Amino acid sequence: MAQETVLQVDNLKRYFDVSKPWLSRVLEGGGRQVVQAVDGVSFEISKGETFSLVGESGCGKSTVARLIVGLYPPTDGSIVFEGVSLSNPAERARHPEKQARMQMIFQDPYASLNPRWRVGDIIAEPIRFRKLLEGGAVKARVGELLEQVGLSARDAEKYPHEFSGGQRQRISIARALAGRPDFLVCDEPTSALDVSVQAQILNLMKELQASLNLTYLFISHNLAVVSHVSTKVGVMYLGRLVEWAETRTLFNRPKHPYTRMLLDAIPDLDMSGRARTPVAGEVPSPINPPSGCTFHTRCPFATERCRAEVPQALSVDGQNVACHAVEEGRLPEWRGLAA
Amino acid sequence: MVAQRLNAILDSDLWWSFTRSKVVVGAAIVTLLLFVAALIAPWISLQDPWDPGALQLINSRNPPVWIEGGTWEFPLGTDNQGRDMYSAILYGLRVSLVVGFLAVIFAMVLGILLGLASGYLGGMTDTVIMRVADVQLTFPAILIALLIGGIVRGVMTPADFEAVAVYVLVLSIGLSQWVQFARTVRGQTLVEKNKEYVQAARVIGLPARLIMLRHVLPNVMGPVLVIATINLAVAILTEATLSFLGVGVPATRPSLGTLIQIGNGFLFSGEWWIVIFPGITMAILVLAVNLLGDWLRDALNPKLR
Which of A2, A72, A224, B128 has the lowest tally of Cβ within 10 angstroms? Predict the structure, then answer.
């Protein structure tokens, strides 16, 4: 089945200038310092699927989310959404109708709702701003949205502080759905919630995806959550995608050493007592990333070539891996979690 | 709906902390009394001190009623023009409060707009606005007010100036105060603009102007109200200082400061009531407003709870 591509990201880059002010640089010496938060990321998302980005803190996954919804302009690369290029602020400004098709759900439900606004006004904002409905119809639609996310229409009169974290995240989802988007960027939507509430929110998101035919870009550091919701998974390391594949493929036959390291670290009740390999080492600073393959400092299979040359993504059976060891076939077979 | 609002107010932390302190309740009552007195001055005064026809020089420099020679016609005595001090104080209070309020509102609006723009837009806008603010802060507020008043006085005829004197005062005092508002608002805006609700508004596609006014502004108003209250006292004092120096409101429509200035000339000739009564009124007003401002600052500061 040929699926319609919703989002196509090609060689996306975002650098942040973290240099000292000009005067201090002149007086104290030292050049410009740049954080390469996202350094050449490419992927595609098809209609109705959930593409997840995973990685440790600081790997640039949230930056990718913000680049796609336009909170940051990309330094380089292209973003094509539903066939329209939104690669820079000017193109975005020309296509407000496309911007309206995408929405974002944020990580912190305590910060993502304006504390001074009533819930009804928060949810109605996209509707009123885009003039989708008028007068009493707005209120009816807000009530409908609230019930769709499992709250009561009467909750529209309340303020955000009257709700729990999980309920606030539901409000956040209702606001995201208010403009009838078909693409949602979810930036760690459950990481601030209790485990029991996480499951409820994830199931709600899955139900909404099925009933409204939504496409998700899902950002998370929690592999259990990712395996539960995603169609495809991309693993990021220091601003680059190191491996991406169908969820089942990635979890059953991980190729990249970094993916294997992450999977090895998942605690599992069935396997208690098993000698797990902990995640070794720390993520190097993105200000001065290691040369070649950025993972070589922590990789047990690193060679001279890994230290010198940036690996290009290699596609095998729909599984994409950027690793010299995989390319050269010198990586041992994945022994699986059971081993 | 109104009852609901009222209940919400009576139920709030702010109301609780208000009723807990007797000093604050006292300050609020005094402030309210002075405001009301200024508001209904024409009905509770004994004469119209702004009407030269009502004044008679024969009544000038009468002592207060409890001193020999005083009459009930002029309970707090009269000044050198034969103005009843009690009525003059009520009208002077009016001028002082109007100038104070308008100046603070002007400074607040200007400071909020520039502070929001500075904090939210950042970059060059921020640099320009904040450097202007820094430079202005190196001058004392009274000097700026004097400067602006002096310039306007220089380009206008005295008769024209008298007509607009109050507005010039408002402008010059307001301009001397905007920096404090702008800096506070900018600081708060920098905090708020990185919160996710602002980013959510950006993703919806709202233009910067609407995000600043609808989302950021309501969340930075707390500290602004505190500064506004404290600055009201400062503005009233600045107006009094300028009037005392003779560059404030004209002597035909005296404010409290003008009255103090007039009375100052008679202090050594024994007519102390001309300066003392306006002085006491001013001191009480400024003290009460300051106490309210201090309380508001503490009540709205979550760290002090």
Answer: A2
A96 touches chain B (CB under 8 A): yes
Q: Structural domain tally of chain B?
A: 1
Residue A119 has pLDDT above 90, yes or no: yes
The ipTM of this complex is: 0.86
Interface test with A, best of B127, B196, B209, B224 (most A CBs within 10 A): B196
B28 in any annotated domain: no
What's the CATH code of the domain at B272?
Answer: 1.10.3720.10
Domain of A83, in residue numbers: 5-101+181-328
What is the 3-state secondary structure of chain A?
CCCCEEEEEEEEEEEEECCCCHHHHHHHCCCCCEEEEEEEEEEEEECCCEEEEECCCCCCHHHHHHHHHCCCCCCEEEEEECCEECCCHHHHHHCHHHHCCEEEECCCCCCCCCCCCCHHHHHHHHHHHCCCCCCHHHHHHHHHHHHHCCCCHHHHHCCHHHCCHHHHHHHHHHHHHHCCCCEEEEECCCCCCCHHHHHHHHHHHHHHHHHHCCEEEEEECCHHHHHHHCCEEEEEECCEEEEEEEHHHHHHCCCCHHHHHHHHCCCCCCCCCCCCCCCCCCCCCCCCCCCCCCCCCCCCCCCHHHHHCCCCCEEECCEEECCHHHHHCCCCCCCCCCC
Q: Smallest Cβ distance to B204: which of A107, A116, A129?
A: A129
Taking only the tens place, the pLDDT of each residue in A252-295 is: 888 899 998 888 877 766 656 666 666 777 778 888 888 888 89
Q: Does A112 contact B at CB distance below 8 Å?
A: yes
pLDDT digits (tens, 9 = 90+) for A44-103: 999 999 999 998 888 889 999 999 999 999 999 999 999 899 998 899 989 888 888 999
Q: Residue B242 falls within a domain, yes or no?
A: yes
